[in-house]
From TrEMBL:
InterPro entries listed in its UniProt record: PyrdxlP-dep_de-COase, PyrdxlP-dep_Trfase, PyrdxlP-dep_Trfase_major, Pyridoxal-P_BS
PANTHER family: GLUTAMATE DECARBOXYLASE (PTHR45677:SF10), GLUTAMATE DECARBOXYLASE-RELATED (PTHR45677)
Species the sequence originates in: Strongylocentrotus purpuratus
Subunit structure: Homodimer.
Name listed for the protein in its UniProt record: Glutamate decarboxylase
GO molecular function: carboxy-lyase activity; pyridoxal phosphate binding
Keywords, ordered alphabetically: Decarboxylase, Lyase, Pyridoxal phosphate
N6-(pyridoxal phosphate)lysine sites (modified residues): K281
Ranges annotated as spanning the membrane: none
Length: 473
């Protein structure tokens, strides 16, 4: 098994290895033997099963895998994951996870200090979306604690606010909370994708005028598509003025907190009541590793505790405040902290700062290369994070007058090139439309193994694949 895993890691770093062996689902199903037999398979078959599984996995650690925000394969983090699996324990009580519980407390304390909180609380959760849900649930509990027992009966018409470019998990949280997505009010963004504080205040005042009860505002630090940072301080001023809970979704852009050069992008973050920060994004920790931090200690426990007597006995022989399970919305909880703690110790905070600065510098290199290359056009010319969004125009489109027909044809370019990319397996870059903007590539720079040569390769590959594209008029 060791050889199988090491071979996969080596392949992941080898640029001559395809990022993926793409198969359509029905074809792949034929190549995978997924049946669960009555009789046990022998060891050779089990090892073959492992080889066959990895054979069709996407090498997300490959230096030219730019498709997702989470990318790369940090060896120390992977080793941490291996130890975590070997320890195979559950985070819900101190009694069976004494080391990891203390480690989680220490790591979350460090993260809160970096945010600027004096003390407070936090938890590692299964992803940024769940972190954001924790914040919404805590906010409602803060203002309406009776909901825990009586539900939403008698509660006024609660409304939440977030930018139109924020993560869809805020919308989903409104649905799960039970207020419905109609009561999540989307706030306009400016030309760079940043929330308009003026529009936020207008919409809060309008909601109050309609007899609704604003209670929660999400500010995004690093939007998913364009990497925009909302104006946190201005939003905090509005939240103070109208007594609203301010959450900062820094799932992706939270990495800037570690860089003295880029931290200004999250100025005001310490004014938030809660912050989502996902080390499995910009800190390169293997999936999953996502934290939600709270300024106020005790609120999580108050909001979520159910005092299950078979787990959270209050007469244990140790300080039961170290049991974490009752402050979560889960029961069993995976140990996500060890790989972060180990990787952080292996780099040091200053080492992480250097790593994050390098990613920003590489993204700036990409911006400069796009500006210099014919046929490429930036969607946003000064990205705030390491998302670089651009269109590629095949020569057949360049001569066309800028009109609706050209936009319709341009809309097809990225999907066509992406399909060829995936079949070739040489590079992977995401694409999407945004508002009235037709499909554009979203290049995420977030793999410490990527170099300027990989950036150049990606641009040249898009040009190689896209240049021949033509559409009959
Ligand atoms: O955790 C991630 O890597 C992640 C989470 C998203 O919501 C969206 C994306 C993405 O668009 O790449 O990545």
């Amino acid at each position: 098994m060791h050889d199988i895993l090491v071979e996969y890691v080596e392949e992941s770093y080898d640029r001559s290895t395809k990022i993926l062996e793409f198969n359509h689902p029905h074809d792949l199903r034929e190549k995978l033997h997924l049946e669960l037999p009555d009789k046990a398979e022998n060891l050779d078959q089990i090892l073959n099963d492992c080889r066959n599984t990895l054979k069709y996995c996407v090498h997300t650690g490959h230096p030219r895998f730019f498709n997702q925000i989470s990318q790369g394969l940090d060896i120390v983090s992977m080793a941490g994951e291996w130890l975590t699996a070997t320890a195979n324990t559950n985070m819900f009580t101190y009694e069976i996870a004494p080391v990891f519980v203390l480690m989680e407390r220490a790591t979350l304390k460090k993260m809160r200090e970096i945010v600027g909180y004096k003390d407070g609380d936090g938890i590692f959760a299964p992803g940024g979306a769940v972190c954001n849900l924790y914040a919404v649930l805590a906010a409602r509990h803060k203002f309406f604690p009776a909901c825990k027992r009586r539900g939403m009966f008698g509660v006024p018409n609660l409304v939440m606010f977030t930018s139109e470019q924020s993560h869809f998990s805020i919308k989903r949280a409104a649905s799960i909370l039970g207020i419905g997505t109609d009561n999540l009010i989307l706030v306009e963004t400016d030309a760079r994708g940043k929330m308009s504080a003026d529009d936020l205040e207008n919409k809060v005042q309008q909601a109050i005028g309609r007899g609704e009860k604003p209670f929660f505002v999400n500010a995004t630090a690093g939007t998913t598509v364009v990497g925009a940072y909302d104006p946190i301080n201005k939003i905090a001023d509005i939240c103070s003025k109208y007594n609203l809970w301010m959450h900062v979704d820094a799932a992706w852009g939270g990495g800037a907190l570690l860089s003295r050069k880029h931290r200004h992008k999250v100025d005001g973050v310490s004014r938030a009541d809660s912050v989502t920060w996902n080390p499995h994004k910009m800190m390169g920790i293997t999936l999953q590793c996502a934290a939600v931090l709270f300024k106020e200690d005790g609120l999580l426990e108050d909001c979520n505790s159910m005092r299950a007597p078979y787990l959270f006995q209050q007469d244990k022989h140790y300080d039961v405040s170290f049991d974490t399970g009752d402050k979560t919305i889960q029961c069993g909880r995976h140990v996500d902290v060890f790989k972060l703690w180990l990787t952080w110790r292996s780099k040091g905070t200053r080492g992480y700062e250097a790593q994050i600065n390098k990613l920003f510098d590489l993204a700036q290199y990409l911006v400069d290369r796009i500006k210099a290359k014919e046929g490429f056009e930036l969607v946003y010319d000064k990205p705030e994070l390491t998302n670089v969004c651009f269109w590629y125009y095949p020569p057949s489109l360049r001569e066309m007058e800028n009109c609706q027909e050209k936009q319709l044809k341009l809309h097809k370019v990225a999907p066509e090139i992406k399909a060829m990319m995936m079949n070739k397996g040489t590079v992977m870059v995401g694409y999407q439309p945004l508002g009235s903007k037709v499909n554009f590539f979203r290049m995420i720079v977030n793999n410490t193994a990527s170099t300027k040569a990989d950036i150049d390769f990606m641009l040249d590959e898009i040009e190689r694949l896209g240049k021949p594209l033509t559409w009959d008029a």
